[in-house]
What we know:
With 360 residues, this protein is mostly helical. The protein has helices at residues 2-18, 22-38, 48-58, 63-69, 74-87, 91-113, 117-123, 129-133, 137-154, 158-169, 182-187, 195-207, 209-220, 233-252, 261-277, 286-294, 297-306, 311-336, 348-359.
Amino acid sequence: MTIFIIYIILLLIMKEIIGKDKKKYCICASLGLFFISACRAETVGVDMDNYISTYLSLKYIPYEKILFGFEKDQIFYCFSKLIADISNSNTYIYLSIIAAIFALSTGYFIYKNSANPSISFFLLLPLEIFYFSMTGLRQAVAISFIFIGYSELFKGKFIKFIGIVLLASLFHRSALVCLLILVPYILAKEKRIRLYKILIVVAIGLLARNQIIDFGMKVFGTEGYEINAGGGMTTLIMYSFIFILVIFLDYGELSIRNNPKSYYVEIYCLLFTVITQSYVPYLTEFFRIRIYFLLPTVVLLPYVMENLKLKTSRNVLKVGLCSAFFLMFIFFTGKSSGIYPYSFFWGVGKYEYKAKIEFN
């Protein structure tokens, strides 16, 4: 966890040094994301054993067999095979390329849409978005495309958004759920959040829960599921609190009533996050779904913080929320993300040798 705390400290230091040069800040912060992700050991990430073993075997599998023999996400595996062929199956080049894709798209999204990049980059940690990019490689590439897609959607280019979503689904088919984001895009026509629309969405989410979960089981190929009402409850409470807070501030403290349409799309996406997170205890795979809806939150919260009427309110909200997220990161998400403990790839050999000596 030390490397991530150092990254947070560097975000603060860079803000003081770089100042208001948003482009330069986003470049530097993105380089930090790339360094952490690209320099990690192969053991960092709960799914890495499977990804690495598959990657190493792709060199011996022809493209035709991948395209017509693999059940899903064939384009991702063709992409991985291409890297394996070029790099002689070097795993660190493989991880570095995926790290670069994620860092570039994330930096671009934050640069184009965030009112406070330092907070946006920080939120990638407690919201587990950055963590997930290091454990789910297929979806990490898909998320990278979706970040770019959001930027296009926020500019009103929904046809481009649809095209980018379809492209992302070639790397992980779960990205297709992002087409549902067109619903909040339509709901956000009015330059005001309407509570009755929120209640309708929540009611649909609750009443159709079983049908949605059953559909999710068919899509993910899961046979049966065990109900665990306690699973993911802390995360659900966190997202629900954020959503309620944003709505409360929208009706009381936000100084701008002519907010950009993207602001309202982001709020509805956060609502979708809350609803899909409530399904996670019943079907774990919904964790993959809600992360797509969660992405805009990294720019939604900074926008809210920067647009309160009183400077005192802005400062209190920044300190309060950032402190709460930091504590959440230290005591919960940082240790439950699947990439703890973090280690650099150049230290793996020494670690394995030490473990072998202790075992003997």
